[in-house]
Amino acid sequence: MSGYAIQMVIFLGLTALVAALTWWRCRRAVHDASASKDYFLAGGTLAWPYIAGSLLLTNISAEQIVGMNGAQVALVAWWEFGAIAGLLVLAHVLVPLYYKHGCTTTPELIERRLGDAGLRAMVSVLFLLGYLCILLPVVLYTGSLFMKSMFSPDLSIFQIACFYATVGLAYAFFGGLRAIAISDTFNGVGLLVLGGIVTVLALAAVDFDLSGIPTERLSLLGAADSDIPWTTLLTGMLFIHVFYWGTNMVIAQRVLAAPTVREAQKGLYAAAAFKLVMPLIVVLPGLIAFKLYGDIGDSAYGRLVGDVLPPWLSGAFAAVIAGAVLSSYNSCLNSASALYACDLHIRYVNPQADVKRVGQWVAVVFTVGSLLIVPVYEHSRSIVDTLQRLNGLYSMPVLAIFITAVAFPWVKGKAARIGLAFGAVLYAVFTFVWSPLHYIHLMAITLAVTLAVILVVDRMMVSTGVSHAAAR
């Protein structure tokens, strides 16, 4: 049997094994009487190991492994270290509030604290647009690029993306969050083990000698013209992580599915501990690839894995990476389904609708839509840089709304809506028209200005005698 055949047999076998184990574990689970809680929040039964495993694999998918190693600089490790701050904010500030108010979706907290259903709907729509136009197609593209660079199959990136989309849709459509979290945990263990093996074998390939790599690529203090200037660590970096880990439904959905606040926090602590070692998997191999091949961008990791792993082990690693891709993809589909069904459809279309059925159709629509957008990302200079820039179009304005809900719950809904719209337009100007500073600085400025607009408009309404009820 040829090396390629061995790879494919092991790849397909392990992928099928994870699916079978997930089905077996889900079949034994106790289901909640509430369809929305059972499908979108696993019936509130996720134990902390599944929360940590699912958080790990949802975050560290192909767009992170391929994109961060593709940067081929040590600086990108800050995306891992900074995540610890976001996880701790989620654990100690937002999780107690989500549970206190019985939230099924993260935007629900906005309505509970500010009393504005329309604002909740606006935030949900922004999340949905971000998932459809940015996150889902990027996950498909980077996962397909990895498989293309590792196996060189006679398939286009779009054809490989169709495979991922189909399998990911199956998990989200039939299993809901429970199946996603369980499969994530199995694949997460494999990612840590095999990712570590790749790093060790890659180091062995260069005799554990990183000499010859330019100093600027090894430094954690970025110059002013780098992707992450050191000054950005003092401005927007923290807020990017608070948004991603604390308010993003794709992430927070896992901790909403725990039986208690304490169980959710334990899962978050475990995920934070993993973040300390993840640069060994998502950063160091890219530096080694630079020494071996030069600056080859997002193809670096797939080529390195194909060269250092024997066929049978590379097939197993491909299965783990496929699992990571599917994790991020089906997690996002399930989150989009929850946001639309719970925040929009039930309130504005049909209060008596079957939320599970509605969610399933949303998953289908988002699968087709994200596939159609995949080709747009094939010409990106750096997928991580592109992802972060585009996320800013809604991340900082939305974070401003959550900060308002947590810290200033007396603010009127109309003032918050004005601030949200203003913030989105401001960052769009920074992105497409005028960029006077690094985009991470501009994200911090967008957040600060959005909050200022919300508070100023609210005070103006009070001073001009606009009633609380009318403003809402």
Summarize the structure.
This protein is an all-alpha fold and 472 residues long.
Secondary structure: elements and pairs:
Blueprint: H1 3-27, H2 35-41, H3 48-59, H4 62-71, H5 78-100, H6 108-114, H7 117-151, H8 157-205, H9 215-218, H10 236-247, H11 249-256, H12 261-277, H13 279-282, H14 284-293, H15 300-308, H16 311-348, H17 355-373, H18 383-407, H19 413-432, H20 439-463, H21 468-471
Helix pairs in contact: 1-8, 1-16, 2-8, 3-8, 3-11, 3-12, 3-16, 4-7, 4-14, 5-10, 5-12, 6-7, 6-18, 7-8, 7-15, 7-16, 7-17, 7-18, 8-14, 8-16, 8-17, 10-18, 10-20, 11-16, 14-15, 16-17, 18-19, 18-20, 19-20
Structural write-up:
By secondary structure, this protein is mainly alpha-helical. Helix 2 crosses helix 8, helix 6 packs antiparallel against helix 7 and helix 11 packs across helix 16. 77% of the residues lie in helices and 0% in strands. It has a single domain, classed as Sodium/glucose cotransporter (Up-down Bundle).
What keywords describe this structure?
0% strand; 21 helices; Sodium/glucose cotransporter; 77% helix; 472 residues; single chain; mainly alpha
Global geometry? globular
Range of helix content: over 70%
Q: Give the N-to-C terminal Cα separation.
A: 69 Å
Number of strands: 0
Proportion in β-strands: under 5%
Name the CATH homologous superfamily.
Sodium/glucose cotransporter
Q: Flag low-confidence runs.
A: none
Total number of distinct structural domains: 1
Query: Quick one: CATH class?
Result: Mainly Alpha
Largest sheet: none
- Which quaternary structure do these chains form? single chain
Element order, helices and strands? HHHHHHHHHHHHHHHHHHHHH
